[in-house]
């Protein structure tokens, strides 16, 4: 084994241990004259903070195109999921805003959706398992700019609350 490879392994182990033990967001390595790590500690210049990239109003506007529900759950380090059917949504800032305060792409993915294969009266699958929607506006004044793929004869997103008056059969709910 080369000395450089061994140093790399040691540095990664020390970094990982510091993050686990010290709960620090950034680590400073001080290397000795021979190049081996001799000291480690938190970097006082860096800190871990929470950034709210998207307003709460955006999540109040957003709905799931698979089941029509409007409640989403955030699971740290995993993502944001529809609370009703577990469809994953990833929000990305759009490159073009066209003068609106916010321009967001919401990307929906059904790889984690519950009961999609048996529950066609309460959920509608997305084409090839995913769809995107571009949302423009500002808190209290959002609007949908476009869907991809475009709704048509083959696919329509579930409208907000479309399945609210339909009860889930008892023999299906246990499959989630």
Question: Can you walk through the features of this model?
Answer:
By secondary structure, the chain is α+β, with helices and mostly antiparallel strands. It folds into two domains: 3-42, no CATH class; 56-162, no CATH class. Helices cover 17% and strands 27% of the residues. The chain has helices at residues 3-22, 56-61, 170-173, and strands spanning 27-31, 37-42, 72-75, 79-82, 88-93, 102-109, 130-137, 143-148. The strands form two sheets. It has a six-stranded antiparallel β-sheet, with no helix packed on it. Strands 1-2 form a two-stranded antiparallel ribbon. Strand 3 and strand 4 (79-82) form a beta hairpin. The longest helix is centred in the N-terminal third of the chain and has 20 residues, at 3-22. The chain is extended. Mean pLDDT is 76; it is low at 18-25.
What general outline do the C-alpha atoms trace?
A: extended
Q: What are the low-pLDDT stretches, counting only 5+ consecutive residues below 50?
A: 18-25
Q: Give me the number of helical elements.
A: 3
Q: Cα-atom Rg, whole angstroms?
A: 23 Å
Structural class determined from secondary elements: alpha+beta
SSE arrangement, N to C: HEEHEEEEEEH
Strand line-up in the sheet with most strands: 3-4-5-6-7-8
Percent of residues in helical segments? 10-25%
| Strand tally | 8
Strand content: 25-35%
Q: How can the largest sheet be summarized?
A: 6 strands, antiparallel
State the end-to-end CA separation.
49 Å
Number of individual domains: 2
């Amino acid at each position: 084994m080369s000395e450089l490879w061994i140093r790399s392994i040691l540095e990664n182990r020390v970094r990982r241990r510091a993050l686990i033990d010290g709960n620090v967001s950034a680590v400073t390595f001080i290397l000795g004259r021979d190049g081996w790590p001799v000291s480690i500690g938190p970097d006082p210049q860096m800190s871990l903070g929470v950034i709210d990239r998207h307003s709460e109003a955006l999540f109040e506007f957003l709905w799931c195109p698979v089941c029509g529900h409007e409640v989403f759950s955030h699971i740290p380090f995993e993502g944001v999921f529809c609370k009703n059917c577990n469809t994953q949504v990833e929000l990305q800032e759009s490159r073009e805003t066209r003068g609106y305060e916010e321009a967001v792409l919401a990307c929906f993915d059904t790889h984690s959706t519950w009961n999609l294969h048996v529950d066609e009266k309460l959920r509608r699958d997305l084409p090839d398992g995913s769809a995107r929607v571009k949302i423009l506006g500002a808190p209290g004044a959002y609007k949908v700019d476009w869907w991809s793929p475009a709704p048509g004869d083959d696919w329509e997103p579930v409208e907000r609350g479309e399945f609210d008056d339909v009860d889930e059969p008892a023999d299906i709910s246990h499959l989630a």
